[in-house]
Amino acid sequence: MPEVSRSAPSGLTQPYLNSTPEKKESPATHFPNNLRPGSSNAVVAIPKPYTPDTSQPFYEELKKALDNNVKLVACLVDAYGCNTTEIGELVIFCRDHNIEILNVEFDIYSDHGKEISGIISSEFPEHTRTAIKSTQSIFSSPQTHHFLRQHAPDGIIIAGEHFNSCIRATTVGIKEGDPNHDMFGDEYGALEYGFPVYTHFGLIRETGSKQCHEEYKSFTNENYHRFEDDSWLMRE
User: Fold this and answer.
1) Which of 105, 123, 207, 220 is deepest in the core (most CB within 10 A)?
2) Least confident of 3-7, 24-28, 121-125, 150-154
3) pLDDT in tens, 69-88
4) How many other C-beta atoms can be found within 10 angstroms of the C-beta atom of residue 64?
5) What domains, with CATH codes, occur in the chain?
């Protein structure tokens, strides 16, 4: 079994590494060992090589990718009330272009009756599935791995909340040194499984610090396709 890297993908510096965090107890809930990259039940990505032009409009480039037989899926991360107009537009685009959608919700919210925005869910195709995750990353849910294994996408469109926690964990993972590491320990994201990521700041809600925002914004990876126009970014 291949050894799993416990560091962030190349190009991303985990925040606050210059400080020495105090010793914390291990979290009661952690990312499942058998779903970590390279583990027994983890999805294996075999994407078709493709590079969109991120200086161009987001949806035009998604259409070009589809025209080039690039298979995309969309994963909504805790879309409880964020950016409803922009994410609703994404859902409609996916519905009209036969892009499968996985709606992923956090068990700590869904267990208490919190629901995603009706503006978004009302646009879902009838067969849209919902997965429940136990940590910040959507890859902590076996349902996510089943969905991705079934559809074998060449890229994942990621949208939702929050920029400095669940979106970060879902995209690039979270390791020791990150302020959110104390919650669940090491987490793993799409890039660590080999999936290219497509996103736009208009699809993401942010509540993080300026440092987290700047690090995430400056992060580069050959499989990370963040479109440049961030005028829709919602800041609190």
Assistant:
1) 105
2) 3-7
3) 999 999 999 887 666 788 89
4) 14
5) 70-235 (3.40.50.850)
